[in-house]
Amino acid sequence: MHSFLNRKSAIFVFVFPFLALYTAIMAYPIFQVFVKSFYEWDGITSPIFSGLDNYRNMLKDSDFIPAVKNGLIFAAVILVYQQVVASILAFIFTSRNLKLRGSKFFKTSFFVPVVLSVTVVGQLWVQLFNYDHGLVNNLLGIFGDDFRQAFLSDPRKAIYAVAFTNGWQFMGMMFVFIYAAIKSIPEQYFEAAIIDGASPFTLHRKITLPMLQETYKFTLVMSITGGLKAFDNMFVMTGGGPGGSTMTLSYMMFKSAFQKGEFGYGCASAVVLLLECLLATLIINKFIARDRIVY
């Protein structure tokens, strides 16, 4: 038994079941989506090959460009909010100069929204954003009624309000990644720098941030791709409205496939969304952490 485990073939034996499961659950459906994007199909009858018609129709669709734009705005808001807030909190809770009481409670509370259902969080913020009796507008109303905002019914503000909700919910996950990465940096690096007279700002700039390159690459990919493919927030909070202002490619895919019965068109939307996520990932991998840091 021991000699078998030492063989390279043993790796295949242990990996194969999970590889087969991944292929059945993930890879094969993705392949089928790509294939069905070239067909006209209602999900019931036999598909009819239509070539690139679905993609041509998508480019002509008046909802396509706004959907792509909304998705990029959504992803950008999430990216900035999650990365900035999570980084600040992680730096605070790993600081050597700040000893915060109840830090365990706060660190746990940051992660609580992550485990909640998107539906629950969405409905919570729908009530908080309510123009007449929502907590947010009640606080703004202290400065006068002119400060009240129609967050979810104003086409100019809705996408930002929904994006904030998503960013708020999943910020805790980014905090955990960044916090854990900072704690994993060897302590002797900081000790040596402190002996040399480095200030806290210098420690962050010369040690912490460079050592977090790989972590930031991962969290940036998570934030951007998560924002691009987000659907449930818009579905729960605005239904793609008002006036299509929160319509994204993922919502367009759902609407085409499950509301209009145009599964081929929906698959084409999914392929474009996948390519969009892959492009974002490639750009991040291209420009971040080019030089591998060795301990």
TrEMBL record:
Q: Name one Pfam family in it.
A: BPD_transp_1
A Gene Ontology BP annotation from the UniProt entry: transmembrane transport
Q: Where is the ABC transmembrane type-1 domain?
A: 68-284
Tree of life domain: Bacteria
Keyword hit for Transmembrane: yes
Please list every transmembrane segment annotated in the UniProt record, as residue ranges: 12-31, 72-93, 105-126, 158-182, 263-284
Q: Which UniProt keywords apply?
A: Cell membrane, Membrane, Transmembrane, Transmembrane helix, Transport
Membrane-topology descriptor: Multi-pass membrane protein
The subcellular location is: Cell membrane
Q: Which Gene3D superfamilies match?
A: MetI-like (1.10.3720.10)
Q: Which GO terms describe its cellular component?
A: plasma membrane
* Assigned protein family: Belongs to the binding-protein-dependent transport system permease family.
Name of the protein in question: Sugar ABC transporter permease
